[in-house]
C-alpha cells in the first residue's frame, strides 16, 4: 500500500479485529492527523473494517476534504459533530464500540453509554502504540525540525548579552525559529539562567543574565507537524571548573545513552545507560527525571525512557535522550538530542553538539 495513511488505517483495523471491536471512535487529534492527514482542531474519526468516516464542522468544509478526502469519507456537520456520531452509532447498532478511554472526557463516555445499546470498550492507546514506529518521511520531518532549531540557536547565541532578561533571549530565539519556518513552538521555550538552571522545568522569567551564568536553553521546532526537542548549554564568559566538571559528566552520560540505546531494550534499560554513569560519580540524586520520551506529531509521546517502564522500545521509534544534573542554588546542566532507534542501532537526528559553549560577552 503506497499511501501511508491507508496502511496505518489497515494496521489499526488489525488491532481492532484482535480485540473483537466492530468500530473505533478516534477522538485524539494527533491520531486523526496520522490516520487521515486532517490538521484541523475539531473532528471525530469513525473507523470500521470497511470505512473511515471523518466528521468535522463547517469551519473545515474546504480544508477537510482537501487534506483527508482521498483516504476518508469526510462529512461536514453544521450542528454538533458528537450529535452526528451518536446518531450514526444508534443507526448502525454496532455491538462492541472501541473508544480512546484515556482521552475521551468521562462526561462524553457516560453520555454515550446511556444512549447506546452496544457496549463501549476502552481500546486504550491503540493508535499511539502504532505511532511510535516512524516511517522514513516522519523521521525526515523530525530531522528537518532539529536542523531548523539548531540553525536558529546558532544565529541567536552570539547575540546574548549580560544584563538582558531570559525573556529577551527567548523572544529572539522564537522569532528566529518562526522566521526559519517552524510551524509553531512545540512547547514553551525554556531559557533558564544561573541558579534557575537547577529547576528542571524552569519557566523563562525576567531574570537578567549575569557574567559567569550557566544558560540552559530547552526549545524546539515543528516541521510538517513533527516536533524536534533540544536542550543546549552555554556559559556567559569562560566556564569555571565546577561548570566544566558537571557538564562533562552529563555529556558522558548522554553519549553513553544515545550510542547505547537499541530497539528491544526496555525503557528502564535505556534510562540506566545514562543513570549508571551519573550515579557512579555520586550525582544520582541530582538526576531526578527520566531519560527521555518519544517524539513525533506530539512532543511527548511513546515510548517513555524511564526506570518504571518495562515495555521494549520498538524498532523505528524516535526518542529524546536528555539526562541532567541539577544542584539547587548552583545551577543545572541538561543535554538533549533526538535519536531514531533504527534496526541497526541509533541514528542521531540532531547534531549532538553537546559541548559547553563559552559565549563572548
Ligand atoms: Zn526539551
Ligand atoms: Zn524533551
Query: By helix and strand content, what is the structural category?
Result: alpha/beta
- What topology, given as strand order, has the largest sheet? 4-3-2-1-5-6
- Counting H and I runs of at least 4 residues, what is the number of helices? 10
β-sheet strand percentage: 15-25%
Question: How would you sum up this structure, described in words?
Answer:
Helix content is 35%, strand content 24%. With 361 residues, the chain is an alpha/beta fold. It has two domains: 2-131, Creatine Amidinohydrolase, Chain A, domain 1 (3-Layer(aba) Sandwich), CATH 3.40.350; 136-359, Creatine Amidinohydrolase. The chain has a six-stranded mixed β-sheet with strand order 4-3-2-1-5-6. Strands 7-8-9-17 form a four-stranded mixed β-sheet. It is elongated. The N and C termini lie far apart (56 Å). It binds zinc ion (ZN) (2 copies). One zinc ion binds next to β9.
Amino acid at each position: 500500500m503506497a499511501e501511508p495513511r491507508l496502511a496505518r488505517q489497515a494496521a489499526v483495523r488489525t488491532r481492532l479485529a484482535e480485540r473483537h471491536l466492530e468500530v473505533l471512535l478516534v477522538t485524539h487529534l494527533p491520531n486523526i492527523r496520522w490516520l487521515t492527514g486532517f490538521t484541523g482542531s475539531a473532528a471525530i474519526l469513525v473507523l470500521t473494517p470497511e470505512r473511515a468516516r471523518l466528521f468535522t464542522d463547517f469551519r473545515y468544509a474546504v480544508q477537510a476534504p482537501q487534506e483527508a478526502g482521498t483516504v476518508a469519507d469526510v462529512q461536514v456537520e453544521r450542528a454538533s459533530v458528537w450529535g452526528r456520531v451518536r446518531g450514526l452509532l444508534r443507526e448502525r447498532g454496532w455491538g462492541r464500540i472501541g473508544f480512546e478511554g484515556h482521552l475521551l472526557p468521562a462526561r462524553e463516555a457516560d453520555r454515550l453509554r446511556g444512549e447506546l445499546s452496544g457496549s463501549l470498550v476502552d481500546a486504550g492507546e491503540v493508535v499511539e502504540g502504532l505511532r511510535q514506529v516512524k516511517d522514513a518521511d516522519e523521521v525526515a520531518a523530525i530531522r528537518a525540525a532539529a536542523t531548523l532549531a539548531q540553525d536558529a540557536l546558532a544565529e541567536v547565541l552570539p547575540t546574548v548579552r549580560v544584563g538582558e532578561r531570559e525573556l529577551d533571549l527567548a523572544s529572539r530565539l522564537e522569532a528566529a525559529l518562526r522566521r526559519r519556518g517552524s510551524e509553531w513552538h512545540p512547547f514553551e521555550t525554556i531559557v533558564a539562567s544561573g541558579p534557575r538552571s537547577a529547576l528542571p522545568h524552569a519557566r523563562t522569567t525576567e531574570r537578567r543574565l549575569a557574567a559567569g551564568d550557566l544558560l540552559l536553553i530547552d526549545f524546539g521546532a515543528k516541521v510538517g507537524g513533527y516536533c524536534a526537542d533540544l536542550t543546549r548549554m552555554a556559559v556567559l564568559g569562560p566556564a569555571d571548573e565546577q561548570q566544566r566538571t558537571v557538564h562533562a559528566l552529563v555529556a558522558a552520560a548522554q553519549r553513553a545513552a544515545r550510542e547505547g540505546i537499541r530497539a528491544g531494550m526496555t525503557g528502564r534499560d535505556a534510562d540506566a545507560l545514562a543513570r549508571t554513569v551519573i550515579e557512579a560519580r555520586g550525582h544520582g540524586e541530582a538526576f531526578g527525571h527520566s531519560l527521555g520520551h518519544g517524539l513525533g506529531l506530539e512532543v511527548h509521546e511513546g515510548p517513555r525512557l524511564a526506570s518504571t517502564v518495562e515495555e521494549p522500545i520498538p524498532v523505528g521509534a524516535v526518542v529524546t535522550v536528555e539526562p541532567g544534573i541539577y544542584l539547587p542554588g548552583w545551577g543545572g546542566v541538561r543535554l538533549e538530542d533526538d535519536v531514531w532507534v533504527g534496526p541497526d542501532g541509533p541514528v542521531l537526528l540532531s547534531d549532538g553538539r553537546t559541548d559547553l559553549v563559552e559565549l563572548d560577552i
